[in-house]
Amino acid sequence: MNSKNEDPTVDLSWKRYLLPPLHPEGQKFVIISAALSFLLWVMFIPLGVLGILATIFCFYFFRNPKRITPIGDNLIIAPADGIVSNITEVIPPSEIEMGTEPLTRISIFMSVFNVHVNRAPVTGKITQVHYRPGKFVSVAEKDSEDNEREEYSMITPSGKKVGFVQIAGLVARRIVSFVKVDEELKAGQVFGLIRFGSRLDVFLPKGVAPQVVLGQTAVAGETILANLEGKQITAKGEER
User: Fold this and answer.
1) Lowest-pLDDT range of 48-52, 197-201, 202-206
2) Do both 80 and 53 map to the same domain?
3) Is residue 116 included in any domain, yes or no?
4) What are 137-191's pLDDT values in tens digits?
């Protein structure tokens, strides 16, 4: 399986697991948490220990590990780490302009322990970005139509449109987007994140079947969700 990244090498050292890169969005949170930990340590050591643990958790929440994205303009790649919690047919949001007929929606649920950096599911151009304010309720098992969300659609070089939605959950309090309409992205490129637990939905074009199953663990930028040409991809990255 090849990569779109300039450097295809994979770091197999201890740093890959214990000291992954920190996303810039998390720097201020780690600094504030570390400063509070120091003050707590001065006041009462046990509280300082708890502060240090909180700082470590904050660092790992905003970690941004390197991912090796499969090559293929027709591949739809997982935009988030987490569990495939739902695969169903629903009418897509009107804002992403994918029609009024039901499409396959793949939902990936992220716990607070997952990487929360989100990556583009396909290579192409952003055609729609729409923010919808809402509530903060559980997104693990329900449609969550009332939840705060950011809705996107992209068009691939072959003209296929793919939609995806960041949904804030019970704990999440901020959806962060780094892209705008007409911006070109490569599959696996970071486009945003959600702070502290949430869900990502991907809407497949009509006639495209999912290549994941319920309960499967998805890895952002690496797991193949579907193939726009309808071909199956083997574990070795080969079409069949």
Assistant:
1) 197-201
2) no
3) yes
4) 655 555 566 788 899 999 999 999 999 999 987 655 678 899 999 999 999 999 9
Q: Are residues 113 and 213 in the same domain?
A: yes
* C-beta of residue 202 within 8 angstroms of C-beta of residue 162: yes
Q: Are residues 192 and 135 in the same domain?
A: yes
Q: Which two tokens stand for residue 94?
A: 């009107």
Chain CA centroid to CA 215, Å: 16
**200 within 8 A of 107, measured Cβ to Cβ:** yes
Q: Which of 3, 85, 153, 198 is catalytic?
A: 198
Looking at residue 24, its pLDDT comes to 82
The residue among 103, 93, 105, 106 whose CA lies nearest residue 134 is 93
From CA 91, how far away is CA 99, in angstroms rounded?
A: 8
Range of the domain at 84: 75-227
Can you tell me the distance from the alpha carbon of 145 to that of 133, in angstroms, rounded to the nearest whole number?
11
Tokens 């579907």 locate to 226
177 is known as an active-site residue: no
Whole-model pTM: value is 0.80
User: Is 85 part of any domain?
Assistant: yes
Three-state SS annotation for the chain: CCCCCCCCCCCCCCHHHHCCCECHHHHHHHHHHHHHHHHHHHHCHHHHHHHHHHHHHHHHHCECCCCCCCCCCCEEECCCCEEEEEEEEECCCHHHCCCCCCEEEEEEEECCCCCCEEECCCCEEEEEEEEECCECCCCCCCCCCCECEEEEEEECCCCCEEEEEEEECCCCCEEEECCCCCCEECCCCEEEEEECCEEEEEECCCCCCECCCCCCEECCCCCEEEECCCCCECCCCCEC
